[in-house]
Amino acid sequence: MKYILITQNMPSPMVYSLHMAKVKRTPLVIGNWKMHPATLEAAKRLGKDVVTKALKARGTASCDIGIAVPTLYFDEIGKITKGKPIMLGAQNAAAGAVGAETGEVSAGMLAERRAAFVIVGHSERRARGEDNAQVTARAAGVLAAKMIPVVCIGEQSRDAEGDFYHIVHEQLDAVFANLGGTAATRVVVAYEPVWAIGTGLTPTAEDVSTMRLAIKKYLHEKYGDAVANKVRVLYGGSVTEENALEFMQNGMIDGFLVGGASLEAVRFAVIIKACIA
Length: 277
What we know:
This protein is of the alpha/beta class. It is built from eleven helices and ten strands. Helix 1 (40-58) runs parallel beside helix 2 and helix 8 packs across helix 10 (244-250).
């Protein structure tokens, strides 16, 4: 199958052809609990429910599952996920290994607690002033600690001229510019259009698939097929059980970064099913 992306304002070239007929990546669904639940006991109940229902929904299908929990809940939720095929992850990590960084937690500390991945550059953190340089440093720290960085990118708004593609390109380039091919394959990219988060607005599957092609275009131009085809691109931004199947089938994505819906095990399970339908 040959996909062609035509745009006037994306970084060159204007016409981009991508051959992806035989490219098959294992879907990945990550639940981002953010600062929920309010108590450890509630977190333990949620963790047990999510593990049970998520694994039942996946069955024998090929689909990776992860949950990003508040750091203070790591040990207890880790007991629940231990020995089970669900990855435990964090929602942020400091760039350095140690240092005078009050309130921060390093990637190495998280790895020691058996974290498998870390979300970096989430739109909520960027909204608080985190810039591309900081996101890049955090991602580098996660890679150095032998974990998977889930790098969030996305535009604040969309303009008719397509200039928002340049914003996403800059965010990608900040992280990948100095990464070799082997390290690049360990990165997961999560596209989250900021204008669709908590606003009631939802992009179309075409919006998502076009941006996904733009992301793949960048990766193919930098690394070639062998590396770029291994990088998974997730969608995040008001993901629900109602729109997951449409995004999965027509948005050409590799899975989801789920926010609010991941706090209800039944809803999270339905989204997992959408990835293996």
